[in-house]
Amino acid sequence: MLEKALVGTKRYYLLLAILAGIFALGFLFYLRQLQVGLSITGMGRDVSWGFYIAQFTYLVGVAASA
């Protein structure tokens, strides 16, 4: 199945490269946030911090339902 995913035109490979770049950029931002903490998001108050954590909890439920 993997061999079928890696066969395509130049446009397909360009799309894969763009998506991989977006993934890498998001991962770098995540690592930066892990290093610095939630202060990098500007969330210093309890309500906004709680909303941030609630969003992760919600998305776990969405992923589980898929």
Give me the secondary-structure topology.
Layout (H helix, E strand, L loop, with lengths): L1 H4 L4 H27 L9 H20 L1
Notes on the protein architecture:
It is a single chain. With 66 residues, this protein is an all-alpha fold. 77% of the residues lie in helices and 0% in strands. The chain has 3 helices and no strands. The longest helix is centred in the middle third of the chain and has 27 residues, at 10-36. The radius of gyration is 17 Å and the shape is elongated.
Roughly what is the average pLDDT, rounded to an integer?
84
Q: Give, in order, the helices and strands.
A: HHH
Number of strands: 0
Q: How many DSSP H or I helices? A: 3
Strand percent estimate: under 5%
- How much helicity do the residues have? over 70%
Biggest pleated sheet: none
C-alpha termini separation: 21 Å
What is the 3D form? elongated
Low-confidence stretches: none
Class based on secondary structure composition and strand pairing: mainly alpha
Radius of gyration computed on alpha carbons: 17 Å
Task: List descriptors.
77% helix; 66 residues; elongated; mainly alpha
Short summary:
The protein is mainly α. It has helices at 2-5, 10-36, 46-65.
